[in-house]
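HOLO CASE FILE
Compound: fe (ii) ion
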Amino acid sequence: MSKIDRRALLGGMAGLATLTAAGCAGPRSAAAIAGRAFPTAGGPLSLPPEPALDPETRLTRIGIGSCFHQGNEGKLLGTAIRTRPDLFLMMGDNVYGDTTSPHVDELKAAYAGALARPDYRAFRAAMPFAAVWDDHDFGDNDAGGDYPYKAQTTPLFFDFWGVPADSPRRASGGIYDAFVTGPKGARVQTILLDTRSFRDRFKASDEKGAVGKERYIEDRDPAKTILGAAQWAWLEDQLSQPADLRLVVTSYQLVADGHGWEKWGLFPAERQRFYDLVAKTRANGVVLVSGDRHRAGIYRETGGAPYPMHELTSSAINMSWSWDMQPGEEPGPNRIGPTFRQNNVGLVGLDWETRQVAFYILDENDRTVLSHGFAMDALKA
Ligand SMILES: [Fe+2]
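Model generated. Tokens follow.
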């Protein structure tokens, strides 16, 4: 296991200071964001002064989380702050604002509701963030490219996450983005995928509720897409860029199998295309993080991929499902250890001396409930 062990996570704050000292100052986006009016259904609110990520930061701790309901308790927000990440990745369902109205007032109110909470504002002010969306902040449950109000919900996402008005990210038609952080030898490329704006409909289950077919079943039509043509071309370009480790953020799971909820595996050709693109571009260091599932898990895939693909899923910050919604353990088959079905956040630890990656899932009592470590240098195409 890495030097970044459980004691370093939450116990020894003196040790943490050295791990995090290089991170997160910078007036640029803080000044741009602080005090900026945010239009809401109930009146304007301001975003908290979120620290900017210094591009020279040698990332050693990346927090992850998903599925935060603006009306629920927020104990995990405190846990996330106490892990002192250099960067926190929100992986979707960042608020719950499902709306079938062209005015998207429910989503505006959801964003305003989050920003009205002192604990949420403290969370956003504690560290730099990057985000993707999932269905409930895209606009509707399990929605995809045919969701009729994405032109209205897209700018709300950018405003809420402090994306500057002149950012090229706003012109893509989706919300995908990528950026590199850290010096040569410790460059982390963060790739934020948009799994909603261009996605075709998944095939509905012929046995709804059955294990492995809960909502959807595999669709082997090779024409069906998750990312869409433009995002695939962009991704090929991104994976061709030099990096020492790549964190690929996908709102719903890519590696995980063994269930019939939304996942890349429902379009097997599209998932294989991802693995093939990693091989074609010889992109080393790909590690996946995901949310959406209302449970946490650690997964590792070797079939079809040029090297072992590891995925850390963290869900939910405060929307864990009751046991009768999702009873029992999932079959796997490519999971390491059990799933964790209570509220949680995750942390990816990067030890650049031992060149180890460490995955952690923490519960609302700040305890590590799942963990797994592996060597960076094994992630080579
Ligand atoms: Fe979701």
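CASE NOTES: Residues 93, 134-136, 292 surround fe (ii) ion (CB under 6 Å). The longest strand covers residues 368-375.
CLOSED: yes
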